[in-house]
Write a structure and sequence with these properties.
Chain A is α/β, with parallel strands linked by helices and about 300 residues long. Helix content of chain A is about 35%, strand content about 15%. In chain B, strand 2 and strand 3 form a beta hairpin. The longest helix of chain B has 11 residues. Classes of the chains: A alpha/beta (about 300), B alpha+beta (about 150). The structure holds adenosine-5'-diphosphate (ADP) and zinc ion. Adenosine-5'-diphosphate binds next to helix 1, strand 1, strand 3, strand 4 and strand 5 of chain B.
Chain lengths: ~300, ~150
């Protein structure tokens, strides 16, 4: 297994051992950070679509290991506005940086960028498709909170149709012996192509519309935002937003050890009154973005084996 | 096929595509862009066949298909056979086959795929040949036969 000079585009590109190696590396870095590990390396941070968490945590990850960051946070400030192709932008950026982190609104953009670039590309999200670093930090969070990933019952709640974090995490979890519970309104169900992929790997999963029917079984509940951008019709959005709002009334229906995760930002899926309960894992989850991204940067730059 | 028909459409050299199901015959012909006057072409339909019930045959005089064209025919009519005719005889005969990776000949059904935004050669991995199911190398969307468009 070698990560040096590799692109991180899709969770599908990583084997179970490779995923575990990233998690192990993140743990080591978190325990004993070396502020000079990435000294002399430059990361280009190309955000063709705005993002807060992903961009800030990548930049923080790089800087805390002694690396430099260049880039842009919005396409409006670049020559893209003048119609430069993605290919050309990447061909330019690879000459200025040792690694490129990018987010782009078009699906497949990161894969194409990886074909253009000689330096490693890390996908920070390509449209509705992939966001592998989010998936890895989700796995890291589960492992850290539960001490394992195997033999857990993991529920996914909300928009399972458009939520790419759910899709990628489900695919990643298919390497492990877990049971998955997909809880969503009928119209926002997990797409068939993902269910078929889980079937082909022999993964146990259940589909449910009523959270309370399964909530007591769960070890992890992964809530998602119902994204306004994904609905062409605002009335449709209103109908589904907040169908599964979590608040204190859920407490009698869950295990004391249940952990609630959320990729953030939340709108009103999780009431702030749950924030100081032992169930809330979402802020820690966001924080885990830093060690996981530090691990990925160090691995693809060949500074850590 | 009876002797008389073979006589009418016998070709010296070229390609005969046969064992095509009736519904796919015109699709294949349309894709090959068989125009009158260019090559000597016969499109025959509704021949009795044990396997398919009724079958279609397309004969193209003076033209051999490229590998790419054969792959496209495999996507349109996976049941088809290709016969290479030389010197009025069948020199080679093979069944079309859907390759494991398809490069360049189909369009991604996802309008927000990078291949539909920039000039990129498409690439698909064949997940299943029957029913046809492909995964786009770029956007990772899974598409079925009804959704794919040929380029
Ligand atoms: N010289 C020719 N000109 C046109 N069509 C031909 C010629 N020779 C054979 N064919 C056609 O090519 C196909 C394959 O021929 P053949 O191998 O003899 O028959 P089959 O595969 O039905 O046993 C048939 O549809 C036949 O009519
Ligand atoms: Zn695509």
């Amino acid at each position: 297994m070698t990560f040096e000079n590799r692109d991180i585009i899709s969770i599908r590109d990583l084997s179970k051992n490779e995923i575990l190696h990233v998690l192990k590396t993140a743990k080591k870095i978190e325990r004993k950070p070396n502020p000079n590990l990435l000294k002399g390396e430059v990361m280009a941070s190309l955000f063709f679509e705005p993002s807060t968490r992903t961009r800030l945590s990548f930049e923080s990850a790089m800087r805390r290991l002694g690396g430099e960051v260049i880039g842009f946070a919005e396409p409006g400030t670049t020559s893209l506005k003048k119609g430069e192709t993605l290919w050309d932008t990447i061909k330019m950026a690879e000459r200025y940086a040792d690694v490129i982190v990018m987010r782009h609104p078009v699906e497949g953009a990161a894969r194409l960028a990886a074909e253009a670039a000689g330096v490693p590309i890390i996908n920070g999200g390509d449209g509705a498709n992939q966001h592998p670093t989010q998936t890895l930090l989700d796995l890291y969070t589960i492992q850290k909170a539960k001490g394992k990933i195997e033999r857990l019952k993991i529920g996914f709640l909300g928009d399972l149709k458009y939520g790419r974090t759910v899709h990628s995490l489900a695919i990643a979890l298919s390497h492990f012996n877990t049971a998955l519970y997909f809880i969503s309104p009928e119209a926002l169900k997990m797409p068939d192509s993902y269910l078929e992929e889980l079937d082909s790997k022999g993964i146990q999963y259940y589909e449910e519309t009523d959270l309370l029917k399964v909530s007591k079984k769960l070890d992890i509940l992964y809530a998602t935002r119902i994204q306004k951008e994904r609905f062409p019709d605002p009335l449709e959005y209103k109908k589904y937003a907040g169908v599964y709002k979590l608040n204190r009334s859920i407490l009698p229906h869950i295990k004391p050890s249940l952990k609630i995760m959320h990729p953030l930002p939340r709108v009103d899926e999780i009431h702030p009154e749950l924030d100081d309960t032992k169930h809330a894992l979402y802020f820690e989850q966001a924080g885990n973005g830093v060690p996981v991204r530090q691990a990925l940067l160090s691995l693809v730059l060949g500074r850590v084996k | 096929m009876n002797k008389k028909m073979l006589k009418i459409s016998a070709i010296n050299e070229g390609t005969v595509i046969d064992h095509i199901s009736t519904i796919n015959t015109f699709k294949v012909a349309e894709f090959l862009n068989l125009k009158e006057g260019e090559d000597v072409v016969t499109v025959g339909m509704n021949f009795e066949s044990k396997k398919l019930g009724k079958k279609g045959v397309i004969k193209i005089g003076g033209r051999f298909l490229t590998k790419n064209e054969v792959n496209k025919i495999a996507l349109i009519a996976p049941e088809a056979n290709i016969n290479i005719i030389k010197d009025y005889g069948v020199k080679e005969k093979f069944k079309v086959e859907i390759p494991d990776v398809i490069k360049g000949i189909i369009k991604c059904a996802n309008t927000n795929c990078i291949t539909n935004k920039e000039s990129v050669r498409t690439k698909f991995y064949v997940l299943c040949k029957d029913p046809l199911k492909l995964r786009c190398h770029y956007c990772e969307r899974v598409v079925g036969k009804e959704e794919i468009g040929l380029v």
